[in-house]
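Late entry, evening session. Most of the bench is empty. Finally got around to the prediction I had been postponing all week. Sequence below, unchanged from the version circulated by S.P.
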Amino acid sequence: MKKNFLEDFGRFPVPNNVIPGLRKYLLKAGITKEPYTFFGALFLFSISVATLIYFLFFYKMLQLLQYKFDKTAYILIQGFGTIIIWASLTLIIIGIIIITIYGYLDIKIFNRTRKLEEILPDFLETVSSNLKGGMSFEKSLWMAMKPKFGILSHEIALAAKKVMTGHDVDLALTEFSLKYDSPMLRRSMSLIISQMQSGGEIADIIDRIVLDLKKTRALKEEMSASVLTYMIFIAVVVIIISPVLFGLAWALLDVISKITALLAQSMSGSSANLPFKISGESINPGDFIFPFSFFAILITAVGSSMIVSIIEKGNIKGGVKYIPMFALSSLGVYYIALKVMKILAGLIKF
């Protein structure tokens, strides 16, 4: 009963015209069933968190208004205020959750597609060998399923089972190609289906596809190797040079603050009529460390990881794995640089 309630609750806010696109998107992430129960649980969680935040922070703020308005006006303000604040909090929390889940699924789709494209040439090469050995195309697919092909073996097994239960081969292969966000896979399956429908030699077209896929992979590896110098340069700048420069900037700010304070103290009792005034107040070096330099280093690390990913892979999604390494390494070097600069700054006497 609880499961049905959550499923109905999760299905309710999803428009009917969105369901087909949602189903295709989830299918690319390897999710074969619509997770309406999960959606329902997330919506209930969002409503609960929004209600908790409202009563912890905003309810007391609205209560303070009863001393500034009469009873009728206060009731109206509290009622409309409660609805607006609670609805806004719920929408914000739902938006954050949706963006987080979308980012996770997008990375998952990218990783699944990359793994499939890496093993696709070897799989098709095995299928071609089976065809040349006299097997039919359906049996060649079935016999090519090996543990080393991982997820591709599972997908081909599903396609082969559909063919054995009466589905057309071209339809099964088309459905299989739509499960992945891979133009390479879709083009390969389209060429194989066209060759089957025209009655041509399937092994020949598969051999040509394998040759093109291997050439493409070799070109990508060559391009990745040719830009290795740029990747190393970016990594050195982000992990070492940038944190050290921020450490030097803090040391310079600390020295300037001390000099300014001494000048202000020495001129406080002076009767000289100067056109300017020196104040001992300045930027706090502690505020420079956090939040300014801390977030500046994090933003630089995230942006640089994406740049490295674009240089290496040609897209941003592959750079997610670099973010923790760049961020932690940069902050670690910054911490060491600050320690060294504080020791050096302590040696300077005024």
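Two things to note before I forget:
The CA atoms of residues 84 and 310 lie 42 Å apart.
The chain has three domains: 2-112, 117-217, 227-267+277-347.
Will write this up properly tomorrow.
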